[in-house]
UniProtKB/TrEMBL annotation:
This is FtsX-like permease family protein. It is found in: Cell membrane. PANTHER family: ABC-TYPE MACROLIDE FAMILY EXPORT SYSTEM PERMEASE COMPONENT 2, MEMBRANE COMPONENT OF TRANSPORTER-RELATED. GO terms for cellular component: plasma membrane. The chain crosses the membrane at residues 21-44, 312-336, 356-389, 401-421. It comes from the Bacteria. The keyword Membrane applies.
């Protein structure tokens, strides 16, 4: 019977075409608005590295001034000083450790048709690429020995590599950056991590920034005293000179530690607490604030990657969907009311109320399917318009299979909910009254 009722539902679309089109359009607009905002929230709040997000941790210690500090206050800084970053890198904590800060370096291409230009990049340690599973197109990252030596080596993004060398494999070639000759050891494939959890601080677009263009060793950037491209926080005045800056309590480096398993978190916390105690003995970390560890999901929450305004937008869009459903209910009542005579005849011929209910509910499901298809097209259009607003929105305004299925599920569910009252009203038709009126 389901197939029969479904075919009746398809045929019913041709009845009162204007009314049917209005129902489908009303439902589609409500679904499109809801799905478009829900898609953005879904992408923004996703786990960027789900199989190990509970094993990657951001360590934070409070090295701020003791003035105006109250016992129990949480750390008010999101980065590490150079001293703390180096100490953590050189420790045996976890399985892998890295320190990262942003750089911007002038590149002097060999090609005469390309002038010198600035490129954005990162200065991490060697563990960075394996820790965050960066996808290599050519070559590989540098070695721990290169870290120790501050070697002049570089890993390029695919986009920068193609700009400088076309489709050729540039590994082994040398290029001039910041006035120094660097050997290319690897090229990353396109790496659009959403959210870009390992590089939230210091980017104009935060967790939804574009991928970096190149990577050089942390120690190399320090050795060449390259300028920082990111956020720096200093609690007190410092003496002139780069070394004085390194020796200061200014925070400008992001630290990450990877453990072998999630259960090693307590051990890592113990290490961080012990480290803070040792530093206090040296006259540092005077606030004695709680030392913090954030795994990936906690870090995204702490950084408010998904803001309250994003959640509010979703609630407002679903409120709009409810209004569309109210209108759809009214249209279905009008559509089914003109079929009272048909229902009366069917009831007189022996059809039960249950069968009438099933028939009309399946018809509303057909309306939901058509509304879902149109809503999907409208949602794609809405996301395309949203993506045109900024580069950051381009990364989040796209639909995956989960949201494709959600679109149809939401449309069908909405149509069924909207059709419950009209269908119930249709089942209350009294056959004798309808036959008498005929």
């Amino acid at each position: 019977m389901f197939q029969y009722y479904f075919l009746l539902g398809v045929r019913s679309l041709r009845r009162n075409p204007a009314l049917t089109a209005l129902m489908v359009l009303t439902l589609a607009i409500g679904v499109a608005a809801s799905v478009a905002t829900l898609t953005i929230l879904h992408v923004m709040s996703g786990d960027p590295i789900p199989h190990k997000s509970d094993r990657l941790f951001v360590p934070l210690v409070d090295n701020g001034d003791i003035e105006n500090y109250k016992a129990g206050d949480k750390i008010d800084d999101d980065q590490l000083s150079y001293r703390d970053a180096v100490n953590i890198i050189n420790s045996k904590a976890g399985e892998r450790r890295t320190a990262v800060f942003g750089i911007a370096i002038a590149i002097e291409p060999e090609r005469k048709d390309i002038g010198a230009f600035n490129a954005r990049g990162l200065a991490p340690t060697a563990d960075f690429f394996n820790m965050f599973e960066a996808p290599f197109l050519h070559g590989q990252g540098w070695s721990p020995a290169d870290d120790k030596a501050g070697a002049d080596v570089v890993v390029l993004s695919r986009k920068l590599s193609e700009k400088l060398y076309g489709d050729a494999d540039p590994v082994g070639k040398r290029m001039t950056m910041g006035g120094f000759q660097y050997q290319i050891v690897g090229v990353l494939n396109t790496w659009n991590v959403v959210p870009r959890f390992h590089r939230i601080i210091g980017n104009n677009d935060g967790a939804f920034s574009e991928e970096e263009e190149m990577y050089i060793p942390f120690s190399n950037a320090i050795r060449h005293e390259f300028p920082r491209n990111g956020s720096t926080s200093c609690h007190q005045d410092i003496a002139p000179g780069f070394q004085a800056f390194l020796d200061s309590e200014c925070t400008w480096i992001q630290g990450w530690i990877e453990t072998r398993s999630a259960s090693d978190r307590a051990e890592l916390q113990s290490f961080l607490d012990s480290y803070a105690i040792e530093q206090r003995k040296l006259g540092r970390l005077k606030r004695a604030a709680p030392n913090m560890l954030y795994d990936v999901r906690e870090w995204l929450d702490y950084q408010k990657v998904v803001g309250n305004d994003n959640k509010l937008s979703v609630w407002l869009s679903f409120g709009f969907l409810v209004l569309c459903l109210v209108n759809t209910i009214g249209l279905l009542l009008a559509k089914f009311s003109v079929r009272a005579a048909e229902v009366g005849i069917r009831r007189a011929l022996g059809a039960s109320r249950r069968e009438i209910f099933a028939q009309f509910l399946i018809e509303t499901t057909v309306v939901g399917l058509v509304g879902g298809l149109l809503g999907l097209l409208l949602a794609f259009g809405a996301l395309a318009l949203i993506a045109m607003q900024s580069k950051a929105l381009t990364l989040v305004a796209h639909m995956d299979w989960v949201m494709l299925l959600t679109t149809f599920g939401l449309a069908v569910a909405s149509a069924i909910i909207a059709g419950l009252l009209p269908t119930w009203r249709a089942c209350q038709v009294t056959p004798a009254l309808q036959l008498k009126s005929q």
